[in-house]
Amino acid sequence: MEKNFSRRLTLNTNFDVIVVGGGPAGITAALASSREGAKTLLVEATSALGGMSTTGLVTSWCPFSDREKMIYRGLAEKIFHLSNQGLPHLKKDVLDWVAINPEHLKVVYDDLMIQYGVSVLFNTQLAAVDTHEDVVESIILSNKAGLTAYQAKTYIDTTGDADLVAFAGGAFMKGDDWDGELQSATHCFILSNVDTYGFENGPWLNKANKNSPAYKIKDDEAFDLIEDAHICAKLLGPDTVGFNAGHIKGVDNTLPESNSKAYMTGRKIAAQLRDGLKKYYPSAFSNAFLASTATLMGIRESRRIVGDYVLTVEDYAERKSFEDEICRNSYFLDIHHPKEDEDPERKAYYDRMRLVKHYGKGESHGIPYRCLIPKDFKNVLVAGRSISVERIVQGSVRVMPVALVMGEAAGVAAGLAIHHNGEVRNVDVQKIRQRLIEEGAYLI
Ligand SMILES: Cc1cc2nc3c(=O)[nH]c(=O)nc-3n(C[C@H](O)[C@H](O)[C@H](O)COP(=O)(O)OP(=O)(O)OC[C@H]3O[C@@H](n4cnc5c(N)ncnc54)[C@H](O)[C@@H]3O)c2cc1C
């Protein structure tokens, strides 16, 4: 049943740019927008900034290098170095798969917001979007003050789920082209009271090690929720290890019922993995304590927008450069559980992925500015895991170093757009690139 409601709401017009979603992409977007001189508001549904990198307990940065040099630079590089200060045990000068101390990183992000003059609203969720033709006129936020409308010139959607674009009625894709199948989710967690000596000198837990105890846990009927041997583990601090482990299939983060069920399953998986590690890896985990599960479900994929350009597998395979590229990426095509073999057409689609060789040293591709512009709106940009790419390519561009650099580009563009009535296509993309290069970006 549907029913029309009308409400009188307070309208806040204090901001030029509003960024919705305070994960890696939203953080750099807000910092860069404010640095360009735009009055900027960052809206975050949880009580901390960082998204997956903090609240989601994803405790490891994907590579910052192309295996020759750092390629995620500018604000990303700054955040990476500040993040590392929270982990005294890190080896110097390592750029790839570096651990994250989430509590330290939350404060890094808070301090940057204060330093760059960004206004932040925590525990505040995007509730609705008001449009007129191809313009987003205002958005409605929900928090302890109830519902409040906000009007800005430009909006940046960094919700990871393209909520703003979807609520505005813009075009998006979700999952694969056959049945909307989505990558599995993972509910990350932290174990404390780990024997650090045992962990550092015992078997590598990753599934790439065929002798990993993860395989024994998977095969043990007592741990019925553990479907595969996916375990990535990082030492975070004294006797404390962060886990990106276990998979939950069929979670759609845009459906509250699906997401809520996943938390309940995720918490049980974390407990089973702790018990499995106690049993099959006692030298490190015999006394391990489940200290925390993530407040934010680990979602790899949901909506991705249809933008002015859709980055293709062929672009990725050719390591393509673009005149309007605003960042570069070299991460591999990392899709968890595509259903590749059931349907011949689907199989052919995923065969294209297998034709793409892993990038060699020094190789990367560009991401065009057009992938950040939803085709239906004049004054909206998107950054992070829901930009305009083919599904297979989303498996690469979804990770955090890439989110950081594309967020910075969106922020610069929105900051410049305030001189063009907020219209993002009217900003000279070469000016965006010039500003990014001045701020240290790696662009070709
Ligand atoms: C299990 C898992 C493991 C991963 N492992 C790694 C890894 O090892 N290394 C790596 O670099 N990357 C990894 N990734 C990828 C990476 O963490 C995410 O894809 C990345 O964080 C995406 O950044 P984002 O800013 O687009 O979104 P997110 O980090 O998801 O941030 C989105 C933010 O928006 C907020 N938000 C959402 N909707 C709303 C709304 N309606 N209103 C207000 N706020 C909202 C959320 O609370 C969140 O803070 C992993 C991802 C998952 C799920």
From TrEMBL:
The UniProt record lists the keyword Acetylation: no
UniProtKB keywords: 4Fe-4S, Iron, Iron-sulfur, Metal-binding, Oxidoreductase
Pfam families, alphabetized: FAD_oxidored
PANTHER family: COB--COM HETERODISULFIDE REDUCTASE IRON-SULFUR SUBUNIT A (PTHR43498:SF1), FERREDOXIN:COB-COM HETERODISULFIDE REDUCTASE SUBUNIT A (PTHR43498)
Name of the protein in its database record: FAD-dependent oxidoreductase
Organism ancestry: Bacteria, Bacillati, Mycoplasmatota, Mollicutes, Acholeplasmatales
